[in-house]
Design a protein that fits this description.
The protein has 281 residues and is mainly beta. It folds into two domains: 19-192, Immunoglobulins (Immunoglobulin-like, Sandwich); 200-280, Sandwich (Immunoglobulin-like), CATH 2.60.40. Helix content is 9%, strand content 40%. The chain has three helices and 17 strands. The chain has helices spanning 2-19, 161-164, 200-203, and strands spanning 44-49, 52-55, 66-69, 76-78, 82-89, 97-102, 116-121, 132-137, 145-155, 181-192, 208-211, 218-223, 229-236, 241-249, 251-255, 263-270, 274-280. A hairpin with a 4-residue loop joins strand 13 (229-236) and strand 14. The chain is globular, with a radius of gyration of 20 Å. The structure holds calcium ion (2 copies). One calcium ion (CA) binds at residues 43-44, 56-57, 61, 183, 185.
Length: 281
Amino acid sequence: MKTSIYLFALSSLTTLSLFSQSTNPSPYCAAGYDDGFMAVDHHISNVSIGSLNNNSGSTQYTGQHYVYYNNIAAPTLSKGNTYTLSVSHDGGTSIHFLAAYIDFNNDGDFNDAGERVLQKTINDANQIPNPAIVSVTIPANASTGNTRMRVMVFEDDEYTWAENNTNATSCTADASGFLDWGETEDYTINISGTATGINELTHHTTTIKVYPNPVVNHLTVESTDQQIIHKLIILNINGQIVQELNTDTSIISIDFSSLPDGLYTVEVLSQQSISRLKISK
Ligand SMILES: [Ca+2]
Ligand SMILES: [Ca+2]
């Protein structure tokens, strides 16, 4: 009896260790922050691209605020196709950089041409957009198979670095300690050699429906080809986000009853497409 309990406990531990995320960035450079083990303002709350849609909470990962989510199924992204990468964060006004990288040539770094796929700096505007969204086209010459994606938000602690630098860094192991507030999340992505031939930006118009328009109290957003909708963002006529929802279904009802009458844009991010539709209330 004791032996079987021991074996059960051992197998549970083994299972946990196989499927828990890692704080080791190897073979990639370190991307933790020297704020050590205290909680700070800035964190990544959601990353989505293709079938990846990871909600990572409203605080940083513990420790040095670096995590490699190697236990999450890798999205398959096809060469030549374009995907929507969306990064949600805490929205703090003192975030100086938000950046994402994909190691397209799978050589263990994010330094090659075109590997920084998203960069937003405080110099772009007074505030980093939230979510920060970009279309990513997988290069035809990318290396096929699993590779790494890195997403970072960070603040220049001395408030000098950001003003003098236009390019974010994918590594934070800096002895000078400029980058001590932030969070980094790494993911595995799988690059497929077979293009599906579907270009998301032209694919969307007939597959996402919103109704009724004009809306009264509730708006229904539906993917007519049953694609999973990952995120909905409602913007008012001034481009301000008035509502944002993370979802995992193909039909959603949104409560509009508390929003004033006017024109709105509904931004719908699904597995294969990004759609922007105008509605009125
Ligand atoms: Ca996070
Ligand atoms: Ca590389």
